[in-house]
From TrEMBL:
Record PANTHER family: (E3-INDEPENDENT) E2 UBIQUITIN-CONJUGATING ENZYME (PTHR46116)
Residues spanning the signal sequence: none
Low complexity: bias regions: 503-516
Stored CDD domains: UBCc_UBE2O (cd23837)
Organism, scientific name: Chytriomyces confervae
PROSITE patterns: UBC_2 (PS50127)
Residue ranges of domain UBC core in the record: 591-755
GO molecular-function term, one example from the UniProt record: ubiquitin conjugating enzyme activity
Lineage start: Eukaryota, Fungi, Fungi incertae sedis, Chytridiomycota, Chytridiomycota incertae sedis
Protein name (record): UBC core domain-containing protein
Parts forming coiled coils: none
Ranges that cross the membrane: none
């Protein structure tokens, strides 16, 4: 089940439909649900039924899916496993309507025939004085219909009128605003209200009101069956966001309209796609007033303007069908929405027809201008991970030339041109001198020339616009992430490393057992108090795998194991390019020194084989850690560098860890390891897991625990599921597919990482890098694994088609790869082979 699914819960409400308002996956990152009862358990959904009950938890097996909400542009798949995805290009809804006064039901109403009962709603986009804004609040005047006398009054104080439509206050269907036809009651009928106040307040509220029809009769305010006759918005609170820059030829500052504005000054940006937005419970009206009178047998003199309450309906059932354009550019028409699965977590390298793309920057190319070109995806081969692209001619702003096939790993979405059908867009320059159009909505993208078909709100005209002239309204206020800083950091790091090598800073080869380290000796019993690997659930098996990482090899045996592969070593001076070196030396307390000495003692004796730690005599607050990718994971045999800084309050405050990303602007190599160096781990306080046992505990937590957590809990076999909330996809077809695609993509980053480390070994680990990749043969083994993947993929290993790996956790998780991935693996293997 998915959020906003329309369901029948057979065990409790066999005849009433409801909406799924929360699922276990939607609620994965929330510690409390709407009712404060905790997260939705797996296998359950929270449902709000169209009746008087409060939302409740229901087993998914007790829910019958009757309709599924779909929006234009939604990414979907069929129920077939590992099928290509597509996006919704049209939505058609048939609705059943229940009259708000008579409860009469009409069925099979196309939502193109209805409109919302309110002309203005929260969330609507409006314009005023060449500004665009979003309505955040509305102030209304209401009128009440008194059935016994057929009178209508606008009460003096609307706050003394309360809903009486029977919906629970927490129900999804409880109206946030009064609506025509809604049942209400006077405050006089609230139990517990003092009698004197009841009599005075209720009577005055009606007698002092404005009578639009009829007049006050004694006790009318206490009658049953009072209805909202009409709702008139008076003022709106608007968040103004964008000014029409086409009007600002002098580039001066233009003040927005007042935040609180009379609604008569507002123009609604009415979408032609409104019929696709309706769902269960909405209050609507028929657009054809004459047809509504005929259905309800109303006299001809009764109009929606004078008696809106007689023309309102509630949607009590929907049936949605959609058309979908698939990645291979084919289109399927009139698919029942319940037959499709929403794709909530598409892979970052999924593309669809009409997506605007550019080439990924690569150091291998000698034509940097190629990266500035704009292309458009014509089709994508989902299983092969390739896409056919045509490129724009910059002179005429149209697609020119033939389709060219690329690996999806060579492409990325254009950051400034991401348009989908129904998106609002802003024009950056006039299409012609006399045009006043500046904001519109996307109707589609022309496959012939790549231009965007836009319907402009002002004139209603439809124009084909070059994508370079448009900005997405949704992205107008979003700041672009500056990925260039990663390249700058990388250049600075390499410069500092070269400078440090010239200075020939020497490292001490002595370890903790040498006499020169006597000042760091400590009580042996501390090792028993610290959290060890045996206290960390799930780590023992991973550490066993790490011990198998170093294969026996005599080839290129340039140094002895003890000299070239010391797990713990003390060095004289910290490297200048340590990420926290510039924080400066500070005075540390005696307790800090004692704790650090104890930590070093534990590290010197308890590190697993795949973790190397360097500490420094001149900076006790700094450590550098080299982690070997565990066997049976996509990271197998690769090396990863972390810099650690200890705050003066340590251990009351956890350490700070920085990850050195050597593949800048290529994406994260792990969900927990960011390109800017952030390490996302609950133990470090960089992720709130909500569990005390996973947080830093000064008396128990240790540096050893942090390092082992990084290696065994971060560098995992299926790191896709490290993403918060994604663990609930384990065992599902979507989860298996997404994990497989994620492993394929990150494997390319791992190969790139290996090449960088071999060419530029980090300061303090030069000998270890040579020993690992040459003496132990890991560079050759990594090349052999890659060549095996290439060979099996080329032969078409049907048993593991598409990159699926063996379930044996000791084997490499990727057996075959897509053609698009193989293309880049070959390029990486060529580079690595040249280093053998």
């Amino acid at each position: 089940m998915f959020k906003e699914d329309s369901v029948i819960v057979s065990s409790r409400h066999p005849t009433r439909r409801g909406l799924v308002i929360e699922t276990s996956e939607n609620d994965a990152n929330n510690s409390d649900t709407a009712d404060g009862g905790g997260p939705v358990p797996t296998g359950f959904v929270k449902v709000s039924v169209l009746d008087r009950t409060a939302p409740f938890l229901a087993r998914e097996t007790d829910c019958t899916l009757v309709d599924r909400a779909m929006a234009l542009g939604d990414i979907v798949r069929t129920r077939s496993e590992f099928a290509q995805s597509g996006f919704v290009v049209s939505v058609s809804i048939q609705a059943s309507l229940e009259h708000c006064i008579s409860s009469r039901v009409i069925s099979g109403v196309d939502t193109a025939r209805i409109c919302y009962a309110h002309a203005l709603e929260k969330g609507m986009l409006v314009t005023c004085d060449n500004w665009i804004g979003e309505i955040t609040e509305l102030s209304d005047a209401i009128a009440i219909w008194i059935p016994s006398s057929d009178s209508i009054v606008a009460p003096a104080n609307a706050d003394l009128i309360i809903p009486d439509d029977g919906f629970h206050e927490e129900s999804h269907f409880a109206l946030a605003r009064y609506a025509p036809g809604q049942s209400v009651t006077s405050v006089s009928r609230i139990r517990g209200t003092p009698v004197a106040f009841v009599l005075a307040a209720s009577a005055e509220n009606f007698t002092n009101g404005t009578w639009l029809r009829g007049g006050y009769t004694r006790g009318c305010q206490s009658e049953n069956g009072l209805k909202i006759a009409g709702v008139k918005p008076l003022r709106a609170q608007v968040l103004w966001t964008v000014y029409n820059s086409l009007m600002n030829t002098e580039n001066f500052q233009v003040a927005p309209p007042p935040e609180n504005v009379d609604v008569s000054r507002l123009t609604v940006l009415s979408s032609c796609f409104e019929p696709s937005s309706f769902q269960l419970g909405d209050i609507v009206a028929l657009k054809d007033e004459a047809a509504a009178r005929q259905v309800l047998a109303l006299d001809g003199h009764i109009t929606a303007e004078t008696s809106p309450y007689l023309f309102t309906w509630r949607i009590i059932e929907t049936k949605t069908v959609v058309s979908v354009q698939w990645q291979d550019a084919s289109v399927s028409q009139n698919i029942a929405a319940v037959e499709l699965i929403p794709c909530l977590h598409p892979d970052e390298l999924e593309f669809w027809p009409s997506d605007y793309v550019k080439l990924v920057r690569s150091e291998e190319t000698s034509r940097p201008a190629a990266f500035d070109r704009i292309g458009m995806v014509i089709s994508m081969n989902f299983s092969e991970r390739t896409a056919k692209v045509r490129w724009f001619d910059v002179e005429i702003n149209e697609l020119q030339g033939p389709e060219i096939e690329y690996s999806v790993y060579e492409l990325e979405m254009h950051p400034d041109m991401q348009f989908r059908i129904a998106d609002r867009v802003i024009l950056t320059q006039p299409l012609h001198p006399t045009s006043s159009d500046w904001i519109g909505e996307v109707l589609g993208i022309q496959s012939t020339d790549g231009r965007v078909r836009v319907r402009f709100f002002g004139s209603g005209e439809i124009q084909a616009v070059p994508p370079k002239l448009l900005l997405s309204y949704q992205d107008e206020d979003d700041g672009d992430e500056d990925l260039s800083e990663y390249s700058d950091d990388l250049d600075d790091e390499m410069a500092m490393r070269d400078e440090a090598q010239v200075d020939s800073n020497s490292d001490s080869d002595s370890d903790m057992n040498s006499s020169s380290q006597a000042s760091w000796e400590t009580d042996d019993e501390f090792a028993d108090e610290m959290v060890g690997t045996e206290d960390m659930p799930g780590m023992a098996e991973s550490i066993d795998a790490l011990k198998e990482t170093h294969i026996a090899s005599t080839a290129h045996d340039i140094e002895s194991t003890t000299a070239a592969w010391q797990l713990f070593k003390s060095c004289d001076t910290a490297p200048l390019n340590h990420h926290f070196y510039g924080d400066g030396e500070i005075e540390f307390s005696r307790a800090f020194h004692q704790r650090i000495r104890k930590e070093y003692c534990v590290l010197s004796s308890s590190l697993p084989q795949g973790i190397l730690v360097r500490v420094y005599e001149d900076r006790m607050d700094l450590l550098r850690v080299l982690v070997v990718g565990p066997a049976g994971t996509p990271y197998e045999g690769a090396l990863f560098l972390f810099d650690v800084g200890l705050p003066g309050e340590y251990p009351q405050t956890p350490p700070t860890v920085h990850f050195h990303s050597w593949v800048p602007s290529s994406g994260r190599i792990n969900p927990n390891l960011y390109e800017d160096g952030k390490v996302c781990l609950s133990l470090l306080g960089t992720w709130d897991a909500g569990e005390r046992s996973e947080s830093w505990v000064p008396a128990k937590s240790s540096l050893l625990q942090v390092f082992v957590s990084i290696q065994s809990l971060v560098l995992t076999r299926e790191p896709y599921f490290n993403e918060p909330g994604y663990e609930k996809q384990i065992g599902t077809s979507e989860g298996m597919l997404n994990s497989r695609l994620y492993n394929e993509r990150l494997y390319l980053l791992v190969l790139k990482n290996v090449e960088y480390v071999v060419r530029h070994p980090p300061l303090g680990f030069e000998r270890e890098v040579r020993y690992h990749f040459y003496a132990l043969g890991w560079l050759r083994k990594i090349v052999e694994i890659a060549n095996t993947i290439i060979a099996k993929s080329t032969l078409g290993d049907m048993e593991n088609h598409g990159g699926a790996g063996s379930q044996d956790s000791s084997t490499f998780p990727i057996v075959t790869a897509s053609a698009g991935c193989v293309k880049l693996i070959k390029a990486r293997v060529a580079c690595l082979s040249s280093l053998l």
